[in-house]
Amino acid sequence: MTCKASGDVRAASGFDAHRPGGCNGWRGAWRRPKPSFNQSVIDEFRANGGKAGGPFEGGDLLLLTTTGARSGTEHTTPLGYVRHGDLLLIVGSDMGAHRHPAWYHNLLAHPLVQVEIGTERYGAVAVPAEGPRRDRLFAHVVRAAPGYGDYQANTPRVLPVVVLERTGAEAGADGPAPAPAPVRTLADKVVEVHTWLRAQLKHVRDEVDAHFAAAPDGERPEPGRTQGRVPGLGLQIRQHCLAFCQSLEFHHVSEEQHLFPAMEIHHPELGGAFERLRAEHRTVARLQQELGALPADIAGADPVRFRAELQRMPEELTAHLAYEEEVLLPPLAGIPFPPRAPKP
After folding, report:
1. Residue spans per domain, the chain
2. Over the stretch 250-274, which tens digit does the pLDDT of each residue have?
3. In which order are the strands placed within the sheet that holds 112-117?
């Protein structure tokens, strides 16, 4: 019996012996197994190279690690997935329950997630699909795993379809993204983080352009026109804004608590530069809040004013990143990454 792309592993624990056809047809009354059930699947998955036995044998299973919306702690959930071309899709089915699963609320609050498939683990931005795009993707999911159609029939809520976008350099206009540069020093690591942050900013700008550039009839909206926007990008833009802002905040907190104090001891001549960077961090924190709030107004925003505001923020943010590289990269170029263990 194969449990292929069945969503949360609770689908398996709700097995109804009177309904044949594998977990795509399971709808047992027992929806809330003991927490140890999920943990046993997680342990087996990690111990066996991304494979699990029993009802999950041969199925498409991944581990999704999210950050708690309220607690801020990490939570790992085994989930079925469906591929659609280059897209990796998960569905917030919860067996057709009337509330979204906790992991979905978590990724709305913290879009950066960790994905484990097989023996590979990588970061991703979780972006729920909206509108017609969600409907198209869900139709594909149901063709691949019909049980999701049964789950949708069980509840009036619209089951979320979430695209897991692997983090890393964006693909260019001429083809796939180049392979990332090797990280051998702490300077390389700073450049890697900054490259990702710049890519997220570009992603947000490109999505905003797509939002304003076309109307349902294919015509470009006139300046000031707020009706007829292409649906389905508001949440996508929000998720990428949040991913950028939360990553930048974590990056700056790490610098101020760990990197800057250590470097000031060894490079006292850079004291003035570090004071400027700390002051810029406070300015950037304000910009982060403004950038995070900006997508909330996109549905009724004037395209010209919205784009002007969006352009102002990245210009200040990228100028800060450039100055940070100017100050930090030379002294960090001689520090290995990851750090080497001290000799006994």
Report:
1. 10-166, 186-332
2. 888 988 998 889 888 888 888 899 8
3. 74-80, 61-67, 112-117, 120-128, 161-166, 87-91, 82-84
Distances, alpha carbon 244 to alpha carbons 48, 67, 181, 249, 299, in Å: 34, 15, 21, 9, 21
**Residue where the block lists tokens 């939570």:** 75
Q: How many Å apart are CA 230 and CA 222, to the nearest integer? A: 14
| SS3 (DSSP) at 234 | helix
Q: Per residue in 105-144, pLDDT tens?
A: 999 989 999 999 999 999 999 999 988 889 999 999 999 9
Q: Degrees (nearest 5) of the Cα angle 7, 82, 80?
A: 25
- Digit-coded pLDDT (tens) for 208-227: 777 777 544 444 444 433 34
Q: Does domain 10-166 have CATH number 3.40.50.720?
A: no
Give the tokens for residue 219: 């015509």
* 8 A C-beta contact, residue 25 and residue 147: yes
Residue in the structure block whose two tokens are 């990332």: 180
- C-alpha to C-alpha distance for 285 and 232, rounded to whole angstroms: 28
